[in-house]
Amino acid sequence: MKSEIIIIGGGAAGLMAAYGAVKALPAGSRARVTILEKMPRPGRKILFTGKGRCNFTNLKDWNDFSRHIRTNPNFVKPAFYNFTPADMIDFLESNGLETIVERGDRAFPYSHRASDVLDTMVETVLRHGVTLLTEREVEDIRPGFSIRCSSGETFECEKLIIATGGLSYPMTGSTGDGYRWAGFFGHVVTPCFPSLTALVPKGYKVIEKMDDILKGHVDRTTPMTGSGEALHGAKLKNVNLTVTYDGGASETEFGDIDFTDGGIEGPIGFQVSRKCVKTLMNGGRVSFSLDLKPGVPQEELSERVGSLWESIKNDPRTRQAKDGRGINGKEMYRILLGKLMPWELIPGFQAWNPDILKTSIKTSPSQGRFHRPPRRFYDVDLKLLAKTLKDWKFEIIGFVGYERCVITAGGISTDEVTAKTMESKIQSGLYFCGEVLDMDCDTGGYNLQCAFSTGYLAGQSAAKSIG
């Protein structure tokens, strides 16, 4: 089958490349634009973005947007200005999908359904005449762009766009095929590693021997310990996270954290994950310190904890309990924690900080033939509690890998791709876009926008250069 432009990969970048191509073709052109997608449906990874709500872009201007690109932002700049976040919103809304902008300049479909974004993109490119072929897994590419699929079909094209994604979420079809083909044409592929992924504290997962962890990778399906289960599901808002690398350099982020079945995630967990993963893969050490009360100085917090404790002790309901001791002492501690943190966090906080509540057992002397059973007493270390609220420590021993990371860091070197066209500097007529490139960003809509912008520019450039 002959097609002037073939795009391998029907994800975010590939679909937008197809749209950019058909929009750039002159009126009346008979040139064909074809997408080859290996999976039964295109764009499956889009369905996972934004926890299924699809944070498809971020409306920050370039100066602010570029600060969230972790690789070379100058490479992305021409594509960004050629197809901006505002252009992406206009693309969706002009094709019937209402959008909404939320906190942090993050844009979502108004329905908060990722499937609506994907359906709109697919329907739009099909309506513009793009041929979308699914279950077409490319097995081989030869010079002159002869493409052979596992089905036995062969395709030929003048311009080839590789938009195969990275290695994250392999069940969506991202298995790194594009790196192999780029290497065939002489391109350098920088080492890849998971980014925007869960970080695993020591004691969170059932790991019998550290030797079982290969370069820090802990599979997400690894069972949680009892302590991990106790933290699982807790969400913290407006906390400080300080990360220390190899006992020296550190960084602090403010925001929200989630404890999931994978480990520590959420916006600031993801924010630091890239550097944490690299450090662990290189044999380094990573430690976390959580400040649950960043707006309160340590001395003031200590006084507050003491005041709350006295208030609980003197509460009439406490005095009515048996002697104000025994099980009541343990319950008093739980009430105190409820005044200092979300209730959902209390079981996990207690499990990870057992030294705060000290237990002692006292035996009273027997009188005559009457034997008094031992009594359990509880004592709360208020100083340690206040200190832990400001400095809750975790040793990070691993990370969740490509099976559930959001983005792949590393990829095809952008030094060998022309930023103004996305065309290879090595092979004429070959273009790259999206996650297959060495281009990754923070969470918050930045990665998808980079995929859309580079995809649109790649398709547009390929169409304009057709003879």
Provide the fold topology.
Layout: E1 5-8, H1 12-24, E2 33-36, E3 57-58, H2 62-65, H3 73-82, H4 85-94, E4 99-102, E5 106-109, H5 114-127, E6 131-133, E7 138-142, E8 146-149, E9 154-156, E10 159-162, H6 177-184, E11 189-195, E12 199-201, H7 226-231, E13 235-245, E14 250-259, E15 264-265, H8 266-281, E16 286-291, H9 298-313, H10 316-320, H11 327-338, H12 346-352, E17 357-362, E18 375-380, H13 382-390, E19 392-399, E20 407-412, E21 430-432, H14 446-464
Parallel strand pairs: 1-2, 1-10, 2-6, 10-21
Antiparallel strand pairs: 3-5, 4-5, 7-8, 8-9, 11-20, 12-19, 13-14, 13-16, 14-15, 16-19, 17-18
Description of the molecule:
With about 475 residues, this protein is of the alpha+beta class. It folds into 2 domains: about 5-195 and about 405-465, FAD/NAD(P)-binding domain (3-Layer(bba) Sandwich), CATH 3.50.50.60; about 200-405, no CATH class. It contains 14 helices and 21 strands. The protein has helices spanning about 10-25, 60-65, 75-80, 85-95, 115-125, 175-185, 225-230, 265-280, 300-315, 315-320, 325-340, 345-350, 380-390, 445-465; strands at about 5-10, 35, 55-60, 100, 105-110, 130-135, 140, 145-150, 155, 160, 190-195, 200, 235-245, 250-260, 265, 285-290, 355-360, 375-380, 390-400, 405-410, 430. The strands form 6 sheets. Strands 12-19-16-13-14-15 form a 6-stranded antiparallel sheet. A 5-stranded parallel sheet has the order 6-2-1-10-21, covered by helices on one side. A 3-stranded antiparallel sheet has the order 3-5-4. A hairpin with a 3-residue loop joins β7 (about 140) and β8 (about 145-150). α9 packs across α13. The chain is elongated, with a radius of gyration of 28 Å. It starts with a strand and ends with a helix. About 40% of the residues are buried. The mean pLDDT is about 95.
